[in-house]
Amino acid sequence: MTTMAYPWDAGDYAQHSAVQARWASELLVKLEWPLSHDVLDLGCGDGKVSALLAGRVRQGSVTGIDASPEMVALACRYHAEKDTANLRFVQMDARELSFDRQFDVIFSNAVLHWIEEHPQVLAGCQGALRPGGRLL
Length: 136
Hints:
The chain is α/β, with parallel strands linked by helices. Helix content is 35%, strand content 21%.
């Protein structure tokens, strides 16, 4: 696995990530998705946006990935007690996606500017999307 270039403090991020969640909320109200979509959230961070997505696709599922083990652990802890049966978190680098045609939508709110290797990310996204899927 490729090593991360930036060490995240998950607790600090969770305390200061309201703007990212607001951006995602503003975008999500403009999008119409079938309730059954399966969604991949690239760079899920503390899981707030992933939970918003899970609330919109109640008959589908959301997988939030983040390269930071601390972020994934925080997201799992924060969302473990909530009604989020359709939500899971996985530690994975966006440059090394290992999904095979599993998602209808790949959503990225605020991660791509942290990654220099966009061709790797896009190739992984292409492999993770089902035919007709969308990268947002």
